[in-house]
Amino acid sequence: MATERDSRAPGGSSAAPGAPGGAGTRLRHGARPASTGPRLLTGAKVVLPTGVVEGGQVAVDGRRITGTAPAGAETVDVTGHWLVPGFVDIHNHGGGGASFSGTPEQILTAVRTHRLHGTTTLVASTVTDEMDLLVRQAGLLSELAEQGEIAGIHFEGPFISPCRKGAHSEALLRDPDPAEVRKLVDAARGHARMITLAAELPGGIDSVRLLAEHGVIAAIGHTDATYEQTVEAIDAGATVATHLFNAMPGLGHRAPGPIAALLEDERVTVELINDGTHLHAAALQLAFHHAGAGRVAFITDAMDAAGIGDGRYMLGPLEVEVSEGVARLVQGGSIAGSTLTLDRAFKRAVTVDRLPVEHAVAALSANPARLLGMSDRIGSLEPGKDADLVLLDAAFDLKGVMRQGEWVVAPQLP
Ligand SMILES: [Zn+2]
């Protein structure tokens, strides 16, 4: 599938250099702009779906990006900085010492932690647990989705393979019985966005069909499927590879397994955890070469320690030790999610992996926005969309975050 091209009229881009904006009041470098009211960000390298605009500008009025600067707009000179769309994380278990399996307060702590790192849209992921606990958590999370704090729920497990369980509790795994899958979808009250499952298990293909019929993304992951079984699952409606390469058989020349099937099919978007631990740089390049920049979504798969640091944490019912930023199960040593934030994934993509900035933006914003069916509101810096944006300095370090027109991180300018 090609990179997102929004259907809105291409003219009148807010980032076109030289757009009218003279009415603005100039703000000194270093001064703190007000968090609301019409604003004009000028002098930036603005990353649009069509490419990078040097010396571009973005106008914001209320919660939206506008085509021209609103009257009386406050000018914020961000010369030398990058402006990219807010990041969209479709697979994230927590951060700031809290998880999406916790209380509403803990869930908000995790959401806010990731917002400070540029994630303006986040799908909350659960881990394998007792069905009734997952049903209860789905109810809690759906309330936060209704309040606009999260963009929905991703259930990772319990319908996954014991052979590829990763950091999921083996005793609680179950086959993907469509009736049970349906139970989680119903409990989420319209906010179930994605379920990761192993489609080769009994009931797997029927469950994929059920999810596709309900408009919920069926994601293939924590799977021991063959190439042929994976093709069957994609034909049944699966459209996402859950952290491609991790928790699935490797690419063999006689047994190409799920990786080949997921990479070659135009209908599939592949998640990648770009933290330098989960993937070798060459595996990331392989995914980009085969899937193309339009079919990759960078995710964090973050757990509680993201945004905090080393120590002992819980991942669902399992204990995790985080050392030098790498999270591993205390029992067995499996990698247990990441401590990644998407600003770091972005910086790594353009500095270590040397991806074009536009490709990093596609993988962090446009592609996941499209997957969620939210491209009309988020995923690019175009007029009419939510003013969700991230300000980065020349070294790609985060210097500001705006969400729905409000500064979550006020611009830190030299
Ligand atoms: Zn996983």
TrEMBL record:
Q: What is this protein called?
A: N-acetylglucosamine-6-phosphate deacetylase
Cofactor entry:
a divalent metal cation
Region Disordered: list its residue ranges: 1-38
Start and end of every Amidohydrolase-related domain?
Answer: 83-408
UniProt: Zn(2+) binding residues: E156, H222, H243
**What are the entry keywords?**
Carbohydrate metabolism, Hydrolase, Metal-binding
Reaction catalysed by this enzyme = N-acetyl-D-glucosamine 6-phosphate + H2O = D-glucosamine 6-phosphate + acetate
Q: Which NCBIfam families match?
A: nagA
Annotated pathway, please? Amino-sugar metabolism; N-acetylneuraminate degradation; D-fructose 6-phosphate from N-acetylneuraminate: step 4/5
Amino-acid positions noted as binding substrate in the UniProt annotation, renumbered to this chain: A167, N246, A247, R254, H278, I335, A336, G337
SUPFAM superfamilies, per this entry?
Answer: Composite domain of metallo-dependent hydrolases, Metallo-dependent hydrolases
Give the EC number(s) under which this enzyme is classified: 3.5.1.25
A Gene Ontology molecular function term for this protein is: N-acetylglucosamine-6-phosphate deacetylase activity
Q: What's this protein's family per the entry?
A: Belongs to the metallo-dependent hydrolases superfamily. NagA family.
Listed InterPro entries: Amidohydro-rel, GlcNAc_6-P_deAcase, Metal-dep_hydrolase_composite, Metal_Hydrolase
Bound how, and how many: what does the cofactor note say?
Answer: Binds 1 divalent metal cation per subunit.
| UniProt superkingdom | Bacteria
Q: Which residues form the active site?
A: D301 (proton donor/acceptor)
